[in-house]
Amino acid sequence: MNILGFESSCDETGVALVQAEAVGVPRLRAQALHSQVAMHEAYGGVVPELASRDHIRRVLPLARQVLADAGATLADVDLIAYTRGPGLAGALLVGAGVAVSLGLALGRPTLGIHHLEGHLLSPFLADDDAPSFPFVALLVSGGHTQLMRVDGVGRYALLGETVDDAAGEAFDKSAKLLGLGYPGGPALARLAAFGNPKAFDLPRPLLHSGDLDFSFAGLKTAVMTRLQKLGPNVCEQARADLAASTQLAIVDVLTAKAVRALKDTGLTRLVVAGGVGANALLRETLDARAARLGARVHYPPPALCTDNGAMIALAAALRWQHGLPAADPAPPRFDVLP
Ligand code: KG4
Ligand code: ZN
User: Fold this and answer.
1) Strands, E, within 20-134: which ranges?
2) Is residue 307 lining ligand 1, measured as CB closer than 6 Å?
3) Residue of 113, 141, 253, 312 best suited for mutating to test ligand 1, as the one with most atoms within 8 Å of CB
4) In the chain, fewer beta carbons within 10 Å around the N or the C end?
5) What is the ipTM of this complex?
6) Candidates 3.90.930.60, 3.40.470.10, 3.40.50.150, 3.30.420.40; correct CATH number of 132-299?
């Protein structure tokens, strides 16, 4: 079974070819990605109309490149998967439109995949480190922060989520306040490397709420008030200290809640997915806390933490392997909204 996957929910155009047998971890044959980060940088965030237009320009050349890299042709493709949401409607329509058109032209089924399911299952793309079910998943992206209990493919129970901003949004908004570029997460982490994380005592909202929900909106406000106090001529060291303190506050909350989820469920495997999962301090802290509990943390390969086509093709492959419906209803619905 060869699955061609398309991701276009936000600012990355991703295409990948994944091969799956009836059993065993599916294999990534080839993938290609175009990031629009440089294009949106000048605006300090993603401009939806520009994103859609760029997906249109990139998607077919990337698909050709993936097939060439895999030594395959369209005739080898058995199933076409695409991100059906959540995401920017115009951007999603590009991937869905291409996938459904290819499906009609080739006489092959298509399958819309929930973007977060793609992230959730992406650690299965780590060659020798595929987690086994059940596990707790911490999904930390620019738009979502959720803890899930995962009992199998398609068997997901929400344990808790953010009541306002997502963790990635907290990174991005704080970074913007600090005058850093977009996307803010990696930029803030780089600046934080030169700062003292204990320099500023920032709030850790809902840390002791007793549940598994998160709240990050107050943190951004706290960063803003600290910056206002520091004044317009804030020195480099104070900026780095504030970046380090912000990163530590976010990591503290994510770690505490993930550990609580492991304790509450009694599970011993934690999967971390989504862009914030690339954060080095989060990885170090989670690894250390989980080890103390006798638990293991699984991550996708670093390059597959942020949006990509491989996770979409992989989710489709796993759905097919687990006997879940692996085709959109016919005729395909153009229903890409969340
Ligand atoms: O999963 P993703 O690529 O896209 C969404 O589905 O949102 O996640 C993007 C988010 C952004 O907020 C970005 O700032 C954050 O992930 N991010 C990071 C790091 N790399 C990406 N945040 C903290 N540290 C990083 N190293
Ligand atoms: Zn994502």
Assistant:
1) 27-35, 79-85, 110-114
2) yes
3) 141
4) C
5) 0.98
6) 3.30.420.40
